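Chapter summary example: a protein plus 6-O-phosphono-beta-D-fructofuranose.
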Amino acid sequence: MSIRESIDPSRTAAWQRLAALAPALREKSLRSLFGDDPGRGPAWTLDAAGLMVDFSKQRVTDDAMDALLALASECGVLERRDAMFAGTHINTTEDRSVLHTALRLPPGASLSVDGSDVVAEVNDVLDRMADFSRRVRDGQWTGASGKRIRNVINIGIGGSDLGPAMAYLALRFYSDRAMTFRFVSNVDPTDISEAIRDLDPAETLFIVASKTFGTQETLTNAKAAREWVVNALGESAVEKHFVAVSTNAERVAAFGIDTANMFGFWDWVGGRYSMDSAIGLSTMIAVGPDRFHEMLAGFHAMDQHFLHADPTVNVPLRMGLIAVWNRDFLDIHTNAVLPYAEFLARFPAYLQQLTMESNGKSVRLDGAQVDYNTGAIFWGEPGTNGQHSFYQLLHQGTEIVACDFILFAQALEPVFDMQDMLAANALAQAAVLAFGRTAEEVRAEGVPEELVPHKVMPGNRPSTFILAPRLEPHALGALIALYEHSVFVQGAVWGIDSFDQWGVELGKAMANSILPDLQDADRPLTHDSSTDALIRAYQSMHATG
Ligand code: F6P
């Protein structure tokens, strides 16, 4: 099968086997699966790169798993994996390699792609980032007036924001607490205004992060930041207060940032797969180069596992295949990510781009329309907060939501026995979702008969439980790579291009065509009647503001 071809997974023998297994499994409860096999918990738990991943509470059996592995084989998932790691242009609609795995290859490794020594290039940028980060952190790199840099503001959006913002918070425990880090993404003017309002421009460094350096939101925010710095410190200050992260040196120079202060990456790093490239510069300044390298080692450990572990114990493969099973055979539409770690508060938002921009597609590589379901909706919030909000629907709603629980055994900042409480809550929620509570059990507690139906928990709501010792940079890298590869597996089964994002382009073009109409009330409007009326209403409200 050529890289541009894709098999229709729904026409494979394995898909038919899965379709035949599904009705019985839809009826079968997790209670009975655990009843049939008292050792199910450990039997369905695998380890990879320091993470323990328990799939036992997914509604899947050995037969279904065999058929899912056969599906992966018929769809050429592992051949595609090997092609990705080797630098083949598997992003066919953009004719690009997909090589985020090369960002974390150790210095001694070798990988030549399209005639370039990728490992040398990656390590060259990492060394420059490390040198710059050290100089900012120890005060050698000062602002234009000689003041020490105390504030770092990353300006970027999508993959140029969500990864850095998520990682900064996830690793805040290891960060330089004397420094302030902020992340500006939205073209809503309050975002940049709030980010700078209490800061001294003389102590502030801006990282303008944009793969293309052509993104409207980022360039506009960068322009506002530049004006703020120039007004306070003069034009010559730009050089000491702005650095860029981009693949486009020409545009960086045109914006007025010296390319000597630019950290590059490559078109083979997708935006949503870029937080371990130079896009992670803010992360490296926050936690230092050593911690950043520990994170890269965590990514690499999961890459190696995905590449070499036998399919029967391959964690990202299993995770991706179970996601396909839930989506296409159990008719589950959404996946909640529930980190029991406050520092992972931005992880669900980060995963939304990783999963939904990657697998929110309905056309296969060969251009054919799919007639099966693809990427699920991802969302979530940290526990225990979510328990007091949307978990009611998870437990008793009509929508079945697959859940990913993420828990660490050790507190970073221990207080009383709070970590044990956190863990007890995570374990309790996963168990209640899976096993529920029957009417008989409710009655046995002496609940009045009229309340019994209200207190019954249907259970049978699937979840995966990810447990690791401690939220360290290595664990974070492994966790992110786990999701990256799970997303890859799903896309490879569905035969879609998980690495393009054509769907977001039309909206950008449309916004550019509406902007001049908004700004000139005399222009005749030619959009649909709703858009035209909203433009006129906006204009009249804007004028009175
Ligand atoms: O929203 C679409 C998108 O292209 C994302 O894929 C990307 O992460 C984001 O815009 C930002 O793009 P850039 O880094 O080029 O500014």
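Key point: Residues 157-160, 210-212, 215, 218, 271-272, 357, 501, 504 surround 6-O-phosphono-beta-D-fructofuranose (CB under 6 Å).
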